[in-house]
Amino acid sequence: KPSLDQLNPYLALLVDELLEFWEPGVWYSRTARATAPHLVRAALIPLICDVVGARQVTGLSPHVSKFFCSFCFLQLSDIENFDKSTWPPRTAQDHRRDAERWRNAQSAEERQSIFKECGVRWSELLRLPYWDPIKFTVIDSMHNLYLGLIKNHCRRVWGINFDVEGGDATTHPSKPPPPRPKPEDLQAGTHILYHGTLGQLSGCTKAEVFSTIREVRESMQLPSWINPVPRGFGTTEHGKLSADQWHTACTTVLPVALILLWGNDTGRKYQMLENFMDLATAVIFAGMWHISQAHIDTFETHLRRYLEGLKELYKEAKIVPNHHLALHLPDFMRLFGPVHAWRSFVFERFNYILQHMNTNMNFG
């Protein structure tokens, strides 16, 4: 990927066009709706991309640096602080001041010193007089929730992988892989699910848990617009799940399967179920096509409860920047409305199409 120094010259070409559209505007002799000369003005508002791309475009330090957040000055060492009222906010005025200091620095060493101090470089987008690098750099819900929180919980916290030893996630899932269970063990787990007692169900092995997930997946009749989870969910043979498949797994398949398995448990597994359902509920409310302030409040409540439960239940689980950034999502919901209008699904689809075009390895 290009560095900031390589990216700014390309941004400069775009900014030159946007400045003209902003002031004085562009006159068209006619448009589709107007036969007379028409003045058109345009502005760039939301910047929609993943975290890595957003930091490069806006001139901010990486999400693994000391100042990991692009919306507040909470430091990485205090990332487990979920109380928003204690987070020092960033402002567009301070950002522009620091970026201009970096641009006007007389040496590379001075620039590096400024960047280390405040985590800000100059970006060509700051030439736009209306551009707010804090409010306009949105958190993409596709990367943050679907490929971030959901995937992290399943892969990192629970260690959902048929080649990793089972357990209750009390310790981090990093043990050496055991032998693959026999087909008869999978069949026995399915039989216990439908015909066994609660005691038998609570004693299910990891193979039987996977069997339950697959049985639930096979028995569901999903609408045509829902992207189903692969039959081999949890194995490497089916490759990576897409963001949409992670969404289906979290909000449709796993809730049903885990309620069947853990719903009558009175110990740790029931707490794990409650914690996961808080995540699933937050994801569902975040993706609604119509939202109100009540919906946003519900999202915040379940997300914060999920994160607090994550710290309590999984002592070895690592709180990552995506967890913190998700708590900023409500701010953008209030600014821009439902997330489907400003998430990156369509752009990722175009990337996919472009990557699969046959160019014979030639540019142009």
What is this structure, in a nutshell?
The chain is mainly α and 364 residues long.
Give the CA-CA distance, first to last residue: 19 Å
User: What amount of the residues lies in strands?
Assistant: under 5%
> What class do helices, strands and sheet pairing give?
mainly alpha
How confident overall, as mean pLDDT?
A: 85
- Low-confidence parts: 162-166
Principal-axis shape: globular
Question: How is the topology of this model organized?
Answer:
Layout: H1 4-22, E1 26-28, E2 38-40, H2 51-58, H3 92-104, H4 108-118, H5 141-157, H6 183-195, H7 198-202, H8 206-219, H9 243-262, H10 268-286, H11 293-313, H12 321-326, H13 329-336, H14 345-355
Antiparallel strand pairs: 1-2
Structure in words:
With 364 residues, the chain is an all-alpha fold. The chain is built from 14 helices and 2 strands; from the N terminus they run H-E-E-H-H-H-H-H-H-H-H-H-H-H-H-H. The protein has helices at 4-22, 51-58, 92-104, 108-118, 141-157, 183-195, 198-202, 206-219, 243-262, 268-286, 293-313, 321-326, 329-336, 345-355; strands at residues 26-28, 38-40. Strands 1-2 form a two-stranded antiparallel ribbon. Helix 8 packs across helix 9. It is globular and about 70 Å long. 29% of the residues are buried.
Features:
two-stranded antiparallel ribbon, 364 residues, 14 helices, mainly alpha, globular, 2 strands
